[in-house]
Specification:
The chain is mostly beta strands. The strands form two sheets. It has a six-stranded mixed β-sheet, with no helix packed on it. It has a four-stranded antiparallel β-sheet with strand order 1-3-8-7, with no helix packed on it. It has no helices and ten strands. The protein is globular.
Length: 116
């Protein structure tokens, strides 16, 4: 199992930026396709962005395309989500996990709140 720890969230005004980090411990996440997810109050968890281990293929949800950038540093076993031009509808708890039908145990996530 990999223990996932997300960080970097916070309160930001609309149009602002945040950079989320995801660190895995216990077992390396290298070799796995990874993703960022988010869950807003009263809504189901949804995928935001994903990328293959090599970084050759990246996916973005329609609502974040052109504003968010997913990246990873395999040497540091760390994944990032650069979020620019944030909107109030981006408010949610953000999680990272492997992009799989069998995700690892979910971490605590990091809260992102965007004020209008």
């Amino acid at each position: 199992q990999v223990q996932l720890v997300e960080s970097g969230g916070g309160l930001v005004q609309a149009g602002g930026s945040l950079r989320l980090s995801c660190v895995g411990s216990g077992r390396t996440s290298s070799g796995y396709n990874m993703a960022w997810f988010r869950q807003a109050p009263g809504k189901e968890r949804e995928i935001v962005a994903s990328m293959t281990w090599s970084g050759a293929t990246r996916y973005y949800g329609d609502s974040v395309k052109g504003r968010f950038t997913i990246s990873r540093d395999n040497a540091k076993d760390t994944m990032y989500l650069q979020m620019d031009n944030l909107k109030p509808e981006d408010t949610a708890v953000y999680y990272c996990n492997r992009h799989s039908t069998s995700p690892w145990d979910w971490g605590q996530g990091t809260q992102v709140t965007v004020s209008s």
